[in-house]
Amino acid sequence: MRVMLVEDDPALADTISRALQGQTGAQVDWTVRGEPVAASLQADAYDLLVLDIGLPGIDGFEVLRRVRAAGLRLPVLVLTGREAIDDRVHGLELGADDYMVKPFALPEMVARAKALVRRARGQSAGASTQVGRLRMDAAARRAWVGVQEVDLPGREWQLLEYLLRHLSRVVSKEHLVSELSGWEGDVSENAVEVYISRLRAKLAGSGLRIRTVRGFGYLLEEALDADPA
Q1: N or C: which end of the chain has fewer CB within 10 A?
Q2: Own/partner pairs for 129-133, CB < 8 Å, 24+ apart?
Q3: What pTM does this model have?
Q4: Tens digit of pLDDT for each residue in 40-51?
Q5: What distance separates the 2 farthest-apart alpha carbons in the chain?
């Protein structure tokens, strides 16, 4: 999984990053300030936001408000030194998914982070999704464009689910390699290009298109005039 960590204590940030990387294999991107967080989350794909409340500049509550106002639904784990019940309630009301008061046990923090990501992915996987003329039934592992059923072998299905979770956001080729690797073996960047090409053809007429953003990766977006090329 990929995690954004917002924490102004470098020593604690390093400890949290090492724990997440060592116990989950996560890629952790760390920032001290909260101002760029919402824009960064919109620009790239993350599975979890770990957010400290006491930050320089805008505090974590304002960061959380901006993240949810931008329509970003990734799980958020709030970390804070504030023990007041009112602060916890305020964070949860703003859209936090879980709340830990410092000092905390690292194994518990890692376990909660994993649980939040697992729950978010499970909710996504368990739902019937419709975007444009594309409909996906995750429970049955079947997909349709209009009334025409679309054959999506395992990796193509997983890739399309991932792109839909990050609709209208650029995802890098490296992240797609990481997402698909370990699932029936590893994949290469060339293989990702092949899967993208196949999905483009299969999404013809769906109102969706996969656009190549040169130097960055791919963007799945709604486009009524979507072209399979």
Answers
A1: C
A2: 129/164, 131/164, 131/167, 131/207, 131/208, 131/222, 132/206, 132/207, 132/208, 132/222, 132/224, 132/226, 133/205, 133/206, 133/207
A3: 0.62
A4: 998 888 999 999
A5: 55
